[in-house]
Amino acid sequence: MVALRAFVITPKLLLAGLCALFLLVAPPFLSAYWVGLLTQVVILGILAMSLDLLIGYTGLPSLGHAGFFGVAAYGVGVLSTTYHAGMWTSIAGGFLAGTLLAALFGLIVSHVRDVYFLMITMALGMVLWGLSFRWIPVTGGDNGISGIPRLEGLIGLPASGPIPFYYIALLVFAACMLLMTLLVRSPFGLTLQGIREHEPRMRSLGFNTWLHGYLSYVCAGAFASIAGIMWAYYNGFVSPTYLELTASSELFLMVTLGGPATLVGPVIGAGAIVILKNVMSAYTARWLLILGIIYIVTILWAPQGLWNLGKRR
Amino acid sequence: MTYFIVQSLNGLFSAALLFLIASGLTLAFGVMRIVNIAHGSFYMLGVYVAYTVAARTSSLLAGTLLAVLVVAAVGFLMQRLFLRRFAAQPLAQMMMTMGFALFFRDAALMIWGGDPFTLATPRWLAGSMEAGAIVFPWYRLFVIVIAALVGVGLWIINDRTLVGARVRATVDDPEIAATMGINVARLSGGVFAVGAALAAFGGVMGGPILGGYAGMDFDLLPLAFVVVIIGGMGSLKGALIGAVVVGMIDNFGKALVPELSYFTLFAPMVLMLALKPTGLYGRA
Questions:
Q1: Is B93 part of a structural domain of the chain?
Q2: Considering only CB atoms, which residues of chain B are within 8 Å of chain A?
Q3: Which of A231, A241, B214, B278 could be cross-linked to B114 through a Cys-Cys bond (beta carbons 3.0 to 4.6 Å apart)?
Q4: Taking the mean position of all CA atoms in its chain, how far away is CA B167?
Q5: Would you say A52 and A260 are in contact if contact means Cβ atoms under 8 Å apart?
């Protein structure tokens, strides 16, 4: 029965399939503007899924997640401009910077839960933002770092421009989504969900809940770093805005709006926010006001997220 | 030596403002377990309302009173209409306050524009105190004294009155407090409104020096959170000690190693978390 049920086509599965098909075939027929937006959606989709590992699957509400994303982006920026490092060195450097930082911060935050976790990750996120803003010799302060070379050229693709970069991003996105899906369905992932539901019970069953929480935090940081690397190459520059509190909370909104503990939901949340933001900004300067209202409306009417609508808990 | 004393007094001035802002944050946290991202917005709205009223009536006192009342009302309504229905859901409450923070920030930009301004210093507090080689503005000294008085007032209310006993009981255990006949929902509304009023008052007190500008809400918020984390969430005494620690470190840090000033501020917090995650006087 279980094996059979996996093949039943539900409306949701159909919708997800259509979205995937759209992401795969539509871009060549779209304008450069929309290809750019879709690139943002898939990169921020990776980031939102990485935060979902923490919020949705482990029950650790992190409000400083943009920090790892930003640090990895800065790693790429500093290595590829100041030190003229090659592409693979820059990517490895960015990835290690973000992941090792997550391993370090994890030691501080992994002992606390719930609201304390929220406040402490937020404060740590602010430290990183402060560093990016004030450590001018390395980060360039408010101006950030510009002049990061294009990724398509470095890889050696014959064509460059938005479309080839989009497909690289889509490939990375698909790989990350596959890895994260395998992760949450593995015994490790199931243990994380057990911890989310009832930590003392998991502990009494003999699981090292501290270690699981810690590893989940480091994994989420590693995937966020991948998104940060892609983001640095997409924009060609890095700036402190990547690490702002508003960036972390927008991520939080993507996960909540899309539906935590689904992986697909946060990608939909990321898509909704990115597209709304760009479309609304064309008509009004009051985007923040609208975003604020979206937060409030989401919590009032879709607290479980769009992807979980109709699902009984 | 003179330099040291003047810098310490400046540090105390920062501490005074931080205490006014963080005491409301920590009280609301203690009673409602709420991480209020909109707390910086109350601080911002306080300065803006006081500025508008003072410009119309040319009375700083009227400006201060109205700012405190208006922001208290905003806080009360926010708690009553939006936050109360999400009691004991810290994530939903946090998201809600984040939404309000963005809303207030953009609304303030729309209503008042983005130009920075400062409030006028009261005439009778102009000039500086001179004691030997030490020169220090009267106004800053005045703010330190006022914050100390507010602190004493809060301590008396919290430790010596029935309302205070109810607040402390709710901080300790909201469920047991409710079974003892304490109306936790109403108490939360009151505490939230008072916290908002304190933040607005802090904004007005800092107004003649720090003024008002776009983005001031998120400038101060992390400092207030550091104070609360160091002192322990829900503890007034902790907020006081945290405010002094953060105020001093912030001032000396900015004076001695300006490029790392943000970092020097957060280092003690990280140290504190490593040693005692609940802060100096906090409870798990």
A1: yes
A2: 29, 33, 35, 37, 82, 86, 90-92, 94-96, 98-107, 110, 218, 221-222, 225-226, 228-229, 233, 259-263, 265-266, 269-270, 273-274, 277-278
A3: B214
A4: 18
A5: yes
pLDDT < 70 positions in chain A: 1-8, 152-154, 156, 158-159, 310-313
Report ipTM (2 d.p.). Answer: 0.84
Looking at the 3D structure of chain B, how many domains does it have? Answer: 1
Q: Which phi and psi angles does B48 have, rounded to 5°?
A: -65, -45
Question: Do A61 and B100 lie within an 8 Å CB cutoff?
Answer: no
Burial class (CB within 10 angstroms; exposed 0-12, middle 13-18, buried 19+) of A143: exposed
Q: Is residue B262 part of a domain?
A: no
What total number of domains does chain A contain? Answer: 1
A21 within some domain: no
Q: Which of A197-206, B3-12, B110-119 has the highest mean pLDDT?
A: A197-206
d(CA A219, CA A221): 5
Residue of B nearest to A108 (CA): B274
- Domain residues for the domain of B96 are 19-215
Strands (E), chain A: 145-146, 237-238
Residue B142 lies in a domain: yes
| Nearest residue on chain B to A257, alpha-carbon basis | B95
Q: pLDDT of A29-77, one tens digit each?
A: 888 889 999 999 999 999 999 999 999 999 999 999 999 999 999 999 9
Contacts of B78 in chain A (CB under 8 A): none
Strands (E), A111-181: 145-146
CB contact under 8 A, A246 and B92: no
Tell me which residue range forms the domain holding A218. Answer: 38-243
Q: How far is CA A277 from CA A286, B121, B145, B159, in A?
A: 10, 41, 46, 49
The DSSP-derived string for A254-305 is HHHHH-TT-SHHHHHHHHHHHHHHHHHHHH-S-HHHHHHHHHHHHHHH-TT-
B261 falls within a domain: no
- The answer to the question of residue A252 being in a domain is no
Task: Answer whether A111 touches B (CB < 8 Å).
Answer: yes
Structure tokens at B123: 């005439």
**What 3-state class would DSSP assign to A236?**
coil
- 3 state SS for chain B: CHHHHHHHHHHHHHHHHHHHHHHHHHHHHHHHCCCCCCHHHHHHHHHHHHHHHHHHHCCHHHHHHHHHHHHHHHHHHHHHHHHHHHCCCHHHHHHHHHHHHHHHHHHHHHHHCCCCECCCCCHHHCCEEEECCEEEEHHHHHHHHHHHHHHHHHHHHHHHCHHHHHHHHHHHCHHHHHHCCCCHHHHHHHHHHHHHHHHHHHHHHHCCCCCECCCHHHHHHHHHHHHHHHHCCCCHHHHHHHHHHHHHHHHHHHHHCHHHHHHHHHHHHHHHHHHCCCCCCCCC
Report how far residue A303's alpha carbon sits from residue A309's, in angstroms, rounded to the nearest whole number: 9
Q: Is A134 on the interface with B (CB under 8 A)?
A: yes
Of A211, A212, A167, nearest to A188 by C-alpha is: A212
